[in-house]
Amino acid sequence: MLFVREITFALVGFCCFVSSVQHCFCIDYNNCTTRNGTVSKNSTEESPQCPEEKVTCCNVSTEEPSVTDSKYLQDGIQEPKASPGEGCGRKRFSTQMNITKDEKPSSKTLFYGEVPWVVAILDKNLNLRCSGTLIYPKVVLTAAHCLSRERSISNLFIRAGYYAPGVTNKPQSSQLRRPHKLVYHSGYDEKNFTNDIAIIILDQPMLLNAMVDVICTPEEGKEFIATECILSGFGSYSKNGSLLSIIKKINYTYKSQEYCLKEMKTTGSLQFYHKSNICGLSDEEDGARNGDGGGPLFCPLKDDPNKMVQIGIVSWQAHSKGKVPTAFTSVKHHLPWLRKYITELS
């Protein structure tokens, strides 16, 4: 199955306010430059609890984790263009090169701002816990298994608009928020991943722009293109012998329930496949990875291919040789639950 484990971003940085939003990171004291801010020991509740050998450092000019790796583009980064139309899930189009300098980028290769609804769910030290999706400016959709053992919401951060480590000259900064409330489906069973769905209500809404946006949820009577779906998240994958913790995408095909049941039986995982699940098959050899849990499976609508709708949440995947389907929590199946809680909380 697809179990989520912590994947650490390369480096961490500072704690300060940018546009009334606090950004907090831990860093070695000697690496903290203070020309735009101040150094603070672990003295405020707002700051993450840094290890003793690290401090909280404020420096507006180094907002995000960074690495000394030349494979990420540093020149000519521009905002993507949204497709014509208003509302959720508007497809983005690139105005520059891809995220990396690969001569032959794979289907995983993203351009800056391509999936503006995908967020990273981080622990108090800004290590990756899971992926999630922004469905309202103040509401994140994710998998219950990502957070079911979380005892305190003060241990979590949500980051939107993140691109890749080492990219510092972006036209828009990423946004960091704290959870206000976590809501799990009452029918979630951690033993078999039934009703593996949760929502995070943020302490303040994300500011929507070219790089941060909300995705659509399914609507009755609206069909999607099953062969053009995308899984996106922060899961790691191997490339040239190294592991990357950057946002990525994988092309997926949505499969019928008949196909899913047959394949799950073949892999010996049928007992975990519930009516609240859907499944999809990656167009490549590898599918979902650690860190993708909670991320979206989204597809273009047939009557408006530039509008993306989230049909699934990454839940689990059987361990088996060859290509095996990934099990997703069905968003459509849980729409009544989603609407009930979002209405109550709003």
Essential attributes:
mainly beta; Thrombin, subunit H; six-stranded antiparallel β-barrel; 3 helices; seven-stranded antiparallel sheet; 2 domains; single chain; globular; 346 residues
Short description:
Helix content is 7%, strand content 30%. The protein has helices spanning 144-147, 257-266, 335-345, and strands at 15-18, 21-24, 26-28, 39-40, 54-57, 81-82, 92-93, 118-123, 128-136, 139-142, 156-160, 175-177, 179-184, 198-202, 229-233, 237-239, 242-244, 248-255, 277-282, 296-300, 308-317, 326-330.
Topology:
Elements: E1 15-18, E2 21-24, E3 26-28, E4 39-40, E5 54-57, E6 81-82, E7 92-93, E8 118-123, E9 128-136, E10 139-142, H1 144-147, E11 156-160, E12 175-177, E13 179-184, E14 198-202, E15 229-233, E16 237-239, E17 242-244, E18 248-255, H2 257-266, E19 277-282, E20 296-300, E21 308-317, E22 326-330, H3 335-345
Antiparallel strand pairs: 1-2, 3-5, 4-5, 6-7, 8-9, 8-11, 9-10, 10-14, 11-12, 13-14, 15-18, 15-20, 16-17, 18-19, 19-22, 20-21, 21-22
